[in-house]
Amino acid sequence: MRNLYMYTMLLVFTASLFSLSSCSRHPKQRVKPHENVLLLLAHPDDETMIGTFLSTWSHRGHNISAIYVTAGEGGKKYIGLDAQGTPTFDDTLSQSKLARIRKNELSRALKEYGIKSYTILGQADRPFRDSQGRPSRDLHAFLHSNTWDLQKMKDQIVKHLQNYAPTIVVSMSLDQDVHVHHKSIRYLAQKMWEEKQFGPRARLFLAIDEGERIKKKLGEEEKSIWKTYKSVDSRGDTAIGSPVLGPARHYRSQLTGYKMNPDPTTVETLYIPKKALRQF
Ligand SMILES: [Zn+2]
User: Fold this and answer.
1) Residues around the ion ligand 1 (C-beta < 5 A)
2) 246: alpha, beta or left, given left = phi > 0 and alpha = psi -120 to 50?
3) Could you report the per-residue pLDDT of 242-256, keeping only the tens digit for each?
4) Gap from CA of 37 to ligand 1 centroid (Å)
5) Half-sphere exposure of 256 (CA within 13 A, CB side)
6) 136 partner at 20 to 30 Å CA-CA among 26, 127, 130, 209?
């Protein structure tokens, strides 16, 4: 996840600057009424990368439900700043306790977005390494490592679909450099979408932050399949007030590094497969 704390601080200033002109800064999304949006994400807090879209959709009355592959027990264990202002971590915190903390953070954040329903599939959140013990982002190696039980995940998602037929499915990751968990849930989402598991009319989007940066890095194959659908500046505002960083501030255990990253890039982008391009 990007540096959420930094954005929170930044938005405190930008929100006051733009509060009088917020109406003109709404993302111009053309989502029809009564969309059922299903998020397929890897970790609690991944939804913050499209917080502006979610806030707007929720405000317009669309139903949003979310599925997370892991509870995020492999995440950071941030507990606060020391006297020098350096982020500090509690290495003694157990993974099961971190999972509980993150579930708590998640339910509070989702409540603010107006997302009432979410499920955690309970797959492992642990670092993936190659045969030399180095961190790996190799999607196919990860899929073959059986770290995640893809068939079980698919069955769980299909079961969820019995009660919730999505018109829009949003997953994540178009960047080869990103977390292998992000790539893996995107792989499954894309596969299920191509098999029409979400229903014949469901549209698939990939949610990406820093979308313009990623666009420059796309390979030819990805460029031939995916197209930018819409980008919004998350420093803009929505009808319900500060859109992204209200909910994101609940992720206290993950708010680190804001002093190390002064670049306040806050562009949210949705990508859509070219063959299914249809304005909505
Ligand atoms: Zn993540």
Assistant:
1) 42-43, 46
2) alpha
3) 444 567 778 888 865
4) 19
5) 14
6) 209
Q: Given pLDDT bands bounded at 50, 70 and 90, which one contains residue 198? A: very high
Which amino acid is it at 111? K
Dist. CA 211 → ligand 1 center (Å): 16
CATH level 2 (architecture), domain 4-125+149-208+226-276: 3-Layer(aba) Sandwich (3.40)
Grade residue 56 by pLDDT with cuts at 50, 70 and 90.
confident
Query: What is the arithmetic mean of pLDDT over 143-171?
Result: 95
pTM to 2 decimal places = 0.81
Residues 122-131, mean pLDDT to the nearest whole number: 95
Quote the ligand 1 centre to 160 CA distance (angstroms): 21
Beta carbons within 10 angstroms of residue 112's beta carbon: 20
Q: How far is the centre of ligand 1, averaged over its atoms, from the C-alpha of 42 (Å)?
A: 5
- Taking residue 57's Cβ as centre, other Cβ atoms within 10 Å add up to 24
All structural domains of the chain with their residue ranges: 4-125+149-208+226-276
Helices (H) and strands (E) in the chain, counts: 9, 9
